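Take a look at the protein record below with the fold in mind.
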Amino acid sequence: MTRIIAGRAGGRTLRTPPGAGTRPTSDRVREALFSALDARGVVAGAAVLDLYAGSGALGLEAASRGARSVDLVESDRRAASVISANAEGLGLPDVRLRVRAMTVTHHLAGSDTAYDLVFVDPPYDLSEAALADVLTALGAPGRLTDRALVVVERSSRSPEPSWPPDWTADRARKYGETTLWFASLLGFDT
């Protein structure tokens, strides 16, 4: 069972898309991630982007904890429908929640929003080259604010992502099979 950990919608259960294609971030990993982000004031008031959103757990957790807007991008239409239902069920009318049923590449090519916080949680079988292409597209001018933080979730067996040259990579946090990688334009102490 996946649930919102804390914030205004804390404790609410989230549906997960049917099938084996979605791997929701565990409650333990989300709790550790958001404790670190909340302690540094990264979430409150942020424009958040959740790429490869799956059930929407990361983006919706950010919404519950005070993000002002969250764009959730998921190419699987069934999963996008589940995300929409989860978002509607949270009852957060003051947060702009937008579910984008499209590929990550398509969203990044057409987005005009500058994001403060980005979650990149692709399927573990996404190649390192494809992930590097996504990060490069994400780093295009106007897509990130000067204070933006990017969090990439990968298998602990995966190498460190290939960050764009103007980003500062920070140390990773490992939680069993999951590793969270942090990077920013200005550097970020994780």
User: Anything to note?
Assistant: The first helix runs from residue 27 to 39. Residues 105 and 175 are 28 Å apart (CA to CA). The longest strand covers residues 144-155.
